Amino acid sequence: MPEETATLSTGTEKTEDTATAPSTSADKADGMDIDTEAKRLMGAGQRHLVMKDVRSSVTSFQEASSLLAKKYGETADECAEAFYSYGTSLLELARMENGVLGNALEGMPEDEEEGEKEEDANIPSADNLDEEGEDSEESEENESTEEKETEDEDVGNLQLAWEMLDLSKMIFKRQKSREAQLKAAQAHLKLGEVSTESENYAQAVEDFLACLDIQKEHLEEHDRLLAETHYHLGLAYQYSSKHEEAISHFTQSVGVIEKRMDVLTKQLEALLDETAEEVKKEMDELKDLLPDIKEKIEDSKEAQKNATVAKIALKETLVGGSSGFSQENVSTSSSTAVEKSGDSTVPVTNCVSDISHLIRKKRKPGEESPLKDKDAKKPKQEPVANGAGNGDAVVPTNEEVEKAEEVSMETATVESTA
After folding, report:
1. What are phi and psi for residue 363, nearest 5 degrees?
2. Where are the domains of the chain?
């Protein structure tokens, strides 16, 4: 972990060590000059944040925190602001490093494809398999070590950010002034952001709700801070797949911004030109925020819809087997009903195929057709000498002829009706 992110522990001895590591500010500051030096470092840290120099801001806030903790004690009211700024800068540093790591990982697939192409071009021989295996193992170990170090550093920054923000929240909360309570709310907000970065969404929701409760007590309903808190709550619920709650808080965030714009519009009519410019600037900023929040609302609605469809599909899959059997039963019962309807008076035009089916059914399973009867009777004929037969079939009896004619007439009747 870089020196600028060295832990400011709750112990006095470790605080002294981290204070002297980054610079000699602690050595130069003595007695009454500590407050002045700490104030200078706080100003420098804020400037570094504005200039996006996050690492330098971490260093400045860490030194200021160390000086004040050494003089007043780590739970003193004088340390709250420095601890809050230190924790906020650490959070930004963790986000920055996550972004850098993400950008570095985006190029990984291309490198792997290039490596595969090289392996295809150069097929290893039996002599160098062992050497290549050893080199590959060493390379994998080095990569895993580097990734672990980066991960440990990132976790350390987030953990330290949590500790500093939690400490500042505790100090602010015990103060009764409105200003201190609102700063405690902001500490809750940043704690929620740390939990969101760590993917601990349940804890994030808890801190965001605590922030919202304090803000509702001390802020007007059109204050932009309320819109920000609702937005963060919406994100936390969205990430944890609680889409209904996400939509609710995104919508409330839009509502607060619209109320704020209405208030500013009324103020704009009674203000002078110079002040009016500032109001117009804020209104433009609010207008720019609305599309993003409304897009989040649509995303949450779509995700909620997809989740509902997925649940229905899963339910149908689970009960699919039993529903299939039901369909077979319905089909069988329908056929049975049609068969039974053959006994009743049913219009022929609606049941032609069914009647033909019934006609075929009239022959009992044990009965055989006249042709089969004829074949069956052949063995009973007297044997004919080889080559002496004339190919004549056995003449059927009168009963067999009448039965064949009856079947033929019934078939012809059905065909003519069809």
Report:
1. -75, 125
2. 1-94+154-199, 219-317
Q: Which residue has the higher pLDDT, 264 or 337?
A: 264
Tens of pLDDT, residues 319-346: 665 444 344 444 444 444 444 444 444 4
Q: Report the alpha-carbon distance of residue 171 to residue 315 in Å, rounded.
A: 52
Would 1-94+154-199 and 219-317 be classified into the same CATH topology? no
Please say whether the structural domain 219-317 has been given the CATH code 1.20.1070: no
> What's the confidence (pLDDT) of residue 296?
86
64 contacts 42 by C-beta, under 8 angstroms = yes
What would the two tokens of residue 188 be?
Answer: 């809750």
Distance CA 271, CA 326 (A): 75
DSSP letter assigned to residue 11:
S
Residue 149 buriedness (CB in 10 A; 0-12 / 13-18 / 19+): exposed
Q: What angle do CA 83, 147, 101 make, to 5 degrees?
A: 65
Structure tokens at 178: 């409105």
Distance (Å, whole) CA 103 – CA 332: 63
Rounded CA separation 362/417 (Å): 18
What are the pLDDT digits (tens) for 127-147? 554 555 555 555 566 665 555
State phi, psi for 227 to the nearest 5 degrees.
Answer: -65, -40
pLDDT single digits (tens) 184-215? 999 999 999 999 999 999 999 999 999 999 99
Cα–Cα distance between 45 and 65 in angstroms, integer?
A: 11
Q: Which of 282, 281, 279, 292 is nearest to 250 (CA)?
A: 292
- The two most distant CA atoms of the chain are separated, in Å, by 142
Is pLDDT of 112 > 80?
A: no
pLDDT of residue 305: 82
Q: In 47-71, which positions are buried (b, 16+ CB within 10 angstroms) versus exposed (e)?
A: ebbeeeebbbbbbbbbbbbbbbbbe
CATH number for 1-94+154-199: choose from 1.25.40, 1.10.10, 1.20.1530, 2.30.30.
1.25.40
**What pLDDT, on the 0 to 100 scale, is given for residue 383?**
45
Q: Under DSSP, is residue 317 helix (H, G, I), strand (E, B) or coil?
A: helix
120 token code pair:
């295809």
